[in-house]
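ok here's the first one, seq then struct tokens
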Amino acid sequence: MKLKNILAIVAISATTAILSVWGYGEVMKFKYTGSADNGKLPVNYAGFYGNNGGPVDFTAPATTATPAVVHIKTKTKAKQITNNSPRQSNPFGDMFGGDMFGDFFNVPRVQMIPEQRASGSGVIISEDGYIVTNNHVVEGADELTVTLTNKKTYKATVIGTDPNSDLALIKIEGSGLPYLIYGNSDECKLGQWVLAIGYPLNLDVTVTAGIVSAKARSIGVIGSNNRGNEPSVKAPIESFIQTDAAVNPGNSGGALINTNGELIGINSAIASQNGGYIGYSYAIPVNIVKKVINDIKKYGTVQRAYIGVQYPQESMSDEEKKKQDIKEGEGVYVMDVPEGGAAKAAGVKKGDFITKLNGTKVATGPELQEQVARYKPGDKITITYTRDGKEITSNLVLKNKVGSTEVVKNESVMDKLGADLVTVDKKIATANEIEGGILVKKIKEGALKNSRMQEGFVITAVNGTSVKTVDDFKAAIASAKGTIYLDGIYPGYTESYRYPVKLEGE
């Protein structure tokens, strides 16, 4: 063989080897696009190559993932609650002791709610300390403490929350932290082995195993335990991965991983009649998690898209379906198509069956909801539906809840109120026998304008919690949603008033 041929073969071999190494690196970089922007794997994945097809052994994924799952402890400070509503008293119960005179004169009752502590779990998703957890884990908390498996403890701050998906993003200050790589929840198969990792019952990190027993489950749990007088969750997203991995209180916000050690869900709920595990647990698919978390990081709030159709709920009985003339068929039955919505513009009509969204098959409401939740207003997708046995595919531009395609701004609650507020001065407070409050100096465009409140009103309580300064007021309404109740007085008058203030339209 001539020297020229030998050199050519060597050159081709070297080039192929270099291209192979480069190509593998690019594939790995694409695969691990979670928060590993530079394509390198976290240190906790060193030496781990996934399931090699041998006997089922969970030690590798468990060892890899546990360092990135954290224990979240919350503290809610003691609060003073004022209740101005009249009591429905037992005619005999208050005759002996109790607040007899308070009831008689309808004096506002003051109640102290003691300090509350709770705990949950979270998943580190970047080496600089971003952590995903459930909204219900951090909701209303005044202090957050995060503890890693190495027992290091950090103070955490809330970056943003989304009650509709029950997700929250918090952050600790650190570097070089272990974190989990995003998997693909669409690739979950029924019967596939999964591991749930968290801190149940205030125990140390715990790993349980099970299989995926169902997908796209809706169980009506998001928004069902709101603390306020009105549900704060207007449009919950429920398309859970159902597993039989044991999950108990404290697991909320923890990781559901596959046998490759990849994050495929955030554990969120338990099917239980007694608050403990009785067979099934539910996780938010990671493909929804990625969208929600990226929106919070980029925009400060979730960019929620709507296609503009009404469809039957999973809980609807056959009798209810018959009464509303809902037909059976393949896909999601369209009950109504409101004017001005994206679906209306795409030609969808009442009685159609939606079968695909951007080429992905959908058979139930939760499946449709899960697909829509991955997009933002303004995204252009295709919708496939059947009408009289004929399949139709149309282009569709998703819209936000107000019917436009614009990005939703992260407007604070104070901005929504639309008023100039100052701490009431001591002279006015003393003259009106109050410890403090917030004076409404000027009412502009916003929620207060629709509440019938007048300028000069002094707010003394928010949802029954006493407030004395503007800082107290800001803290009390920081995470408020739906309708809040503002109690107070008009200086010079003895009567107290309560104004309901709607922060968000229906």
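and now the second one, same deal
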Amino acid sequence: MSRTLVTRLSLGALFFVGCWIAYTQTQRQPPPLTLNKVKDDLFEIEGDGGNVAVYVTGEGVILIDDKYEQDHDNIVAKVKSVTNQPIKYILSTHYHADHSGGNAKFLPTAEIISTLNARRNIVEHKQSNAPPGVMPARITFTAETSVFLGGKEVRAKYVGRGHTDGDAVIYFPALRTLHTGDLMAGNTPLIDYPGGGSLKDWADTLDRALNTFDFDTVIPGHGPVTTRAALETYRDNVVKERERVTSLIREGKSQEDVGKAMMAEFHWAQNSLQMQWSLPGMMQELK
């Protein structure tokens, strides 16, 4: 074999090794997160999972949700960019790993609080596509609880079934702001029937939140910070979807037919979780 050929082969091998190292390093890097100021001492972290709220007080920080485990260090870094106070409490909106997956890494230094149903859903591994090792909260509530820290209050309330059977909305009274978790997320609801969700109850659940709390700002489970009016519109769209599915079922349409209607009218993706989780459950719940 000529020296030139050996050199070329060696350079080619080094090139592919370099590409593989770059690829694997990229794969290990958690996606970037963005910190946005909402009001006064309230911030929101977007990216790679559910929206995290960050409430800064003079005695520590209260988080709402903690994304995936891989986001722990980035979340801590974002918090440190606005305060030197430690993270003391995390209020969970629900059990899904994109909102509670960071629990295991935060539990040694922070107390995590969720609804009793959210804890049960983690313990019973209700999320079929969850990564291993998601840890449940140590403190739970069934109706309502509050955290008081540094002269500030954050309230968590269970207002009914919707996305799951353990959704909590989180209210910041001094800032007239509500974190909905995935009771508002995206353009169309995802109903986790294995986790106790309900399209039938969803609008009533949002009505209770709208009628209970005085707020003008909404941090949804996913997507940009928005307004009370947008939450009201989302609630109306939940009703439209429920009524449309109910009508199709009463017409005798098959699950396949209903799925096609959801893709055409509500922009569901063919292989989405809506098709996997929501569709079979809706066919049973709304018949």
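notes on #2: Residues 3-28 form the longest helix (26 residues). The domain at 31-237 is CATH 3.60.15.10 (Metallo-beta-lactamase; Chain A).
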